[in-house]
Amino acid sequence: MRDQPADARLAAWAAHPAHSRGRRHAEAPPQHRSEFQRDRDRVIHAAAFRRLEYKTQVFVNHEGDLFRTRLTHSLEVSQIARTVARALCINEDLTEAITLAHDLGHTPFGHAGQDALNHCMQPWGGFEHNLQSLRVVDELEQKYAAFDGLNLTYETREGILKHCSRNNARNLGELGQRFIEGLQPGAEAQLANLADEIAYNNHDIDDGLRAGLITIEALRELALFNDHYERVRRRHADLEGRRLINEIVRGMIGGMVADLIATSEARAAQLDPRDIDAVRRADAPIIAFSEGLARRNRELKQFLYRHLYRHYRVHRMTTKAAEVIRRLFESFMRDPLLLPPQAFSRAQAQKDTRGEAGLARAVADYIAGMTDRYAIEEDERLHDPRART
Ligand code: MG
What we know:
The protein has helices spanning 35-44, 47-51, 70-88, 92-101, 110-120, 129-140, 154-160, 166-169, 177-181, 187-210, 216-219, 223-235, 241-271, 276-281, 291-309, 312-334, 341-368, 372-383. It has 389 residues and is mainly α.
């Protein structure tokens, strides 16, 4: 695709669809869309994307209708990242495709589910949610006659694979190479990663306050929060409740986005990369927060870890959730005939070719694809004698 002209509206160091490293299976170019728009559209039409609506971010889906789910989280990440992409003249379509796909591989019950499944899978190479997102788009979605998966471009797949152990990277060919050589991904992938942080740090504050697990007074120990609290207070002395929280949180998001744009612009001017490969080879990411904001952001993450993710009510829920995952995994491994027919045939085929490891991976794929609700119901159907099977 190298001989097509690059898009003049984009920075030289952005991902240009005309210079894409392409798809794993050759396809005719799209007629009315760019290659990255096609990727985004394939993600939106995927079954795994629809399931994000019923997967936990921090609060389990049935705890309340106003909390973020993986779907609304992914939309917020996408919105934040697209604003920054447009300001920096990097590829907004690719940014959108990556951000909408970035959590496709998440298990039910958020990090508790991922940790539990990773624990179960230890004898067979573990479970990594980033790698699972890639498995979803490379293998697990079954929509097209000619190939498994969604056959996305290299650049979208590069962005989805945010982290990867060196062991697993060795099996991923060109895509895994950067984890072995310590290279950066393209700018759009770097941006998706930081937009993810901006989104979850801020919406977890919002959801944590809504759930009554953290308080504004406690949050004011954080410089980042307190600055915005005081700014809002100066303008609106009597503001209270949800509007006060919203004004603070939107100020924080806006401040982080402005810092990210300014810092990345300065880094781009300094590094002056001639193309996306120069971004990949650079010593440090081109998309970054300033040092000051990065430090404040770390303080915020530590606060949320101590006060929200380890809150006893969240901890009780995540402990129950981890038990559900463990019970499902153990039952299916002990007796694969308990799997529904489609999952069983896949597990049987993988067991025939790769033994126990193949069976375990198929069981992990089945469990990882479940929504919170489906996992809870499946656990009841399997383990509660009074439940319908
Ligand atoms: Mg995320």
